[in-house]
User: What shape does this take?
Amino acid sequence: MAGKTSKKPAKAAKTAAARRAGPKAAKPRSARVSGRAAPPKSPSRKDAKPVLLSGGNPQIAKAYGDAPVQAYIAAMPGWKSDVGRRLDALIVRTVPDVHKAVKWNSPFYGIEGQGWFLGIHCFTKYIKVAFFRGTSLRPLPPGASKQKEVRYLDIHEDDPLDEAQFAAWVKQASQLPGERM
Assistant: This one.
């Protein structure tokens, strides 16, 4: 049996080498198992950018109160965020006891016990304000709807906003029975 040499299997040799190198040289378990590096850590919630759905509409979880509406407005892309802040301020100034919520990735405004009277939604090139009982407003908001009572106001980037007219519509809408959604 002279002349025979004992060789360790390749895997055993690597393991022994890793043991000699110490713990700092060892790869993370996920890398040893799969042969790939460990996945990068996900960013913290503070660093995470809001998710935008089709048309640039922010994805905000359903919730009630001012905070989710402010999160939606902050996540509106580009010029839309400034307009969103203006609309929200006008609504609150006109109807101080307004209740707010984000439902179906859109802010809703209403009166407690009466339902929702207005909703906002982002699209690629404009913001759509929906007056749920818009056919009862005078003058009628300009945008027609497939729904019998709904009227819309579409706001594009360079459109002037008639704040007095908008406030008048908001005041009228808040005094009508709202939608139960």
Observations:
- The chain has five helices and six strands.
- Strands lie at 63-64, 99-103, 106-111, 115-122, 126-131, 151-156.
- The first strand starts at residue 63 and ends at 64.
- Residues 27-34, 38-45 have pLDDT under 50 and may be disordered.
